[in-house]
Amino acid sequence: MKQKKLREDAIHIKMREIAEGVSLVREHLPKTAQEFGNLGLVRDGIYKRIEFAVEDVFDICAIINSDLVLGMPIEDDDILEHLVNNDIISKALYRKIQGMKGFRNIVVHRYGTIDDALAFRLLTENIGDFTEFLDEVEGILKKHR
């Protein structure tokens, strides 16, 4: 049986967008939560870049799910479950992507007021999850060439 091919160009475009966005966030993320809370429009730009990066993560996951014909998703969680159940991504990465999604939902929907101190902590502690995701996707691409 012929191995299914992934749309590498589309995935690489999304990967570049994630890397560029995360790089900008790292560049502008201050050293303290108080400084972060005082950034104003720059803080809002950081939130927006993370939002876009998370959307790109889900776009990549959807492309992989579709190209490898892993199943018809009804929602984002179905895509991730297909990827885990077919040993495309690890359970650990699955949990990290779920965390990204939760953070994105808070930023997008502004559930109450965003706690900038909590957001700063989450950003500083978890920004590396994007790099881990990109590394794992690169491995997936190599495997399916």
Can you describe what's shown?
Helix 1 runs antiparallel to helix 3. By secondary structure, the protein is mostly helical. The protein is built from seven helices and no strands. The two termini are 14 Å apart. 75% of the residues lie in helices and 0% in strands. The mean pLDDT is 93. It has a single domain, classed as Four Helix Bundle (Hemerythrin (Met), subunit A), CATH 1.20.120.
Give a brief description.
75% of the residues lie in helices and 0% in strands.
Q: Which key features would you list for this structure?
A:
145 residues, mainly alpha, Four Helix Bundle (Hemerythrin (Met), subunit A), 7 helices, 0% strand
Superfamily (CATH H level) name: bsu32300-like
Oligomer: single chain
CATH architecture: Up-down Bundle
* Secondary structural class: mainly alpha
Alpha carbon gap, first and last residue: 14 Å
Q: Which parts are unreliable, with pLDDT below 50 for 5 consecutive residues or more?
A: none
Outline the secondary-structure elements.
Layout: H1 8-28, H2 33-37, H3 41-67, H4 76-85, H5 91-109, H6 116-126, H7 128-143
Helix pairs in contact: 1-3, 1-7, 3-4, 3-5, 4-5
